[in-house]
Protein 1
Amino acid sequence: MRMIDEYLNSLESFLPDDLKQEVRDELEASIYAQLEDECGALGRELNQQEQEILLRKIGHPMRVAAAYLPNQELVGNEYFPAYKKALQIALSIALVVNLLAVLPELFTGGHVLQSVFGLLGNLIQVGLWIFAAVTLIFHLLQKYGIGLDEIYAWSPNSLKAHKPGRSLSRLETFFEALVETLFLAWWLNLVSWQGSSVGSDTVGVDVSMSPEWAAVFWSVNMIVGASIALNVYKLIIAGWDRFSLTANLVINAATLVVLIQISRFENHVLIRGSGDIAAQWTQAMTIADNVILSILAGVALYVIWESYCNLRELRKAASRAPA
Amino acid sequence: MTDSEHYQKLKLELRRGVLILAVLAELRDEHYGYSLRRNLLSKGLDIDEGTLYPLVRRLEKQKLLTSQWREEDNRRKRFYRLSPIGRTTLQQLTEEWRQVASTLDAILQ
């Protein structure tokens, strides 16, 4: 019987004070009546193992206690759609504000990685606070049964027009914008990079970017800048529309032109060596050029594929448009 | 999720609504927790204590049942029975159940 007592004690510990005694008495009466029934049927006392099976059938004390308690959800299914939407809006605002706040530092501070980690840390912290605050607000609304009619007040006439189209992941778009921002910060520093020397006095090597890159400095800035702006726009509307599809096609076309221009550079990287193995540095320069050309080809293929997808979506959107 | 798990989950959902009707019907006569469970089991409806007792309490809170603590066999037991509101509700639910059952029969044929 010690096992049954311990089970009931454990059950009590998961219940509020006003329920403890009542629930205990009710369950105790039931367990002992069941025990007596089974003893009568078997003609003997139940052993330890049989008692254990009986208690196991009732369930974990925490689960049994939970069944006696009122609503156990922080936000129930009636409030959940509105809660999710509110969370999405609040997190998107926090994301854009944090990104805008850190941009000047990215381009002027010189510690790009530090700024990025700072941004991510800040985003996690702010995100958690927002999550806690929005959850608490909706939990209180639910607890006191208020706001449900106001939240879902609607009329078929006042519904916002939603154009059917390709949806997108906000997280994916955010990371795309982040990578582009980092690339831009790196690119701005790269062009002003004066090169560096590696090696000893006897076998030294100077590595620097070819001066030909200066020809595409502004075009790259404009393309990446426009792409970042487009991603922010996509983040806000949470999808693709005709404007963003067309703008993306224009950006992709411009990217292809610049990629062709870059591929025609005589040299992309200048590696000048001295000493006995100077010829080997010339060979290294050819390898570096080939690596860069391969990367450019990969980027070009991705841009062509994305443009094809955009065109397909635009065609679909055109066929859906009312005549 | 396997086919069997799907079946178990759907079976539970299907039974959940029916349990209330069965419990209300059984409580036309007075019962305490265990005797109610035993009676339902003898008629083919197996409900575990963790589901049945909280359900009975909820129905009592909704004024569909009345309860009384009494001592029987040296143990304090809570006896439940249908309240007047519960009786009317049971009647309405029974009619609804018969209608649903006949509609479903027609659909399932």
Protein 2
Amino acid sequence: MLPKVLLGLLFILTLFLEGSFVAIPLVLVVVLLASVIMRNTLLVFVVFVVGIVFDILRLNPLGQTSLFFVPLVVLITLYDRKFDTKSLPFIIFTSAISVSLYLLIFGHYAFFVELIISLVFAVMIYGIFTKLHLIKQESRS
Amino acid sequence: MGLSNVGKESTIVPMRKRDSIFPAATFFSLLSLGIVFISLYGYTTFITKSISFFTIPAQRMFFSMTLPFFQHEKPSQKVFQNVLNDVGDSENKKEMQALRDQFETSEPRPLHLIPGRIIGYIGFIPGVKQPLFITLDKGTRDGVELNQAVVYENNVIGKISKVTPYASSVMLLTNPDLSFTTETITNGATGIVHGGQPIVMDNVVLSEALEKDEIVVTKGDIDLSGSGFPPNLVVGKIVSTEKQPSALFHSAQLQSLVAVTSLTTVFILTN
């Protein structure tokens, strides 16, 4: 229950922070972490709604952000069979790739600054979730 | 050969069924794609309207609460709780002051103005980049249309670049996509202002003088629908000039007289 509440709060906070102030893809980072922590149909629905609300806050064409977020969740689920998706290197790697792709598709204002701040944010959130034992490392032996 | 298991009770351990997200993901991906297509033709107004009804007030409240932490003129050394308490009062005072200042300004005429409250910055990275757009809490239902000029007193802030029923987006002078014709007050030198960080006025013929600290105003860029910049709105003052002997034109760098991040209310010039 706690991860869901925490993720919900993070979604709301980052939605308004990115929708009203900063040009850093914080919502995307939370989507990434959410898809690592919980993989179910509820998450897909939440990610879809988050994308729609984000487009309304930013006055973007409706649906474009959801169209990026939903397949991203599927991709991470696919990689779950091959890699330890709950490890920090995986989070950093996928964050770097997906944030770069997102910035290239939807436009960027200061590419490297946005990328670095997003990665720092991803590591911070990952650290908090690990400290609270909300991300359990999988043993693959 | 394989007979060792004969007679033993074999137990079949059922595999834990994974909650497959693929059907849902496919459905929501297709739905997103469909929404993108119909939104391009403007058929998603009802979705935007119904969700904006809740998000705009929330966005306005969130912006008011967090603005003091991003503004240059921070409320000096206030603790978070005090900031929260003061937000309501200071926002109202600022809005009243903005309205008073605006209606004391003779040009543009107050009858043609819609006050719009800033509820968001787009393209803003604190300490790195100034915002390229601002979001206002006024939309088509308040009479806002594309390309209308946005001012504060008699200073240019930008022009409307996107409109929805409840909100609109303003392209600021810091945005490289903004350009319009201008002239200097004292020498009457005409040129084209290109938005950006810094703002540049170029295409000024060499025979027309550009001087430091000169005020640059709009020359008037009204389109057929009546939207655009009327003449004599202040764009900024010249901070430096650049002249190359071999070039046909010379240019100047401008500084706006208004810091957008210190404003809470701006005014939309209607047709």
